[in-house]
Amino acid sequence: MKKNMCAKDRLIRLGIVIVLAALVTSGNVTGTAATVVGLLAIVVLLTIVFSFCPLYKALGITTVKDDK
Q1: Residues 33-68: pLDDT tens digits?
Q2: Rg (CA), the chain
Q3: pLDDT score recorded for residue 64
């Protein structure tokens, strides 16, 4: 799996994960919506950990600069 996300992209996604987690843990989102938001936060967190976004791959996008 080739990395396709730069550090700035990962940092932005981390902010999104923090907001989503805050919504769920504070009780602002409940029930099925909380489950969906929680799963979305986990998926985004995994993209951060692996520096790989499957959607980017499908669309041919990369934010990593080549060293050429």
Answers
A1: 999 999 999 999 999 999 999 999 999 999 998 754
A2: 14
A3: 93
Section 8-30 average pLDDT:
96
Residue 8 CA to its chain's centroid (Å): 12
Q: Give domain limits for the chain.
A: 7-59
d(CA 43, CA 48): 9
Contact assessment for residue 15 and residue 29, using Cβ atoms and an 8 Å cutoff: no
Cβ proximity of 12 and 61 under 8 Å? no
Determine the Cα–Cα distance for residues 8 and 40; give it in Å rounded to an integer.
20
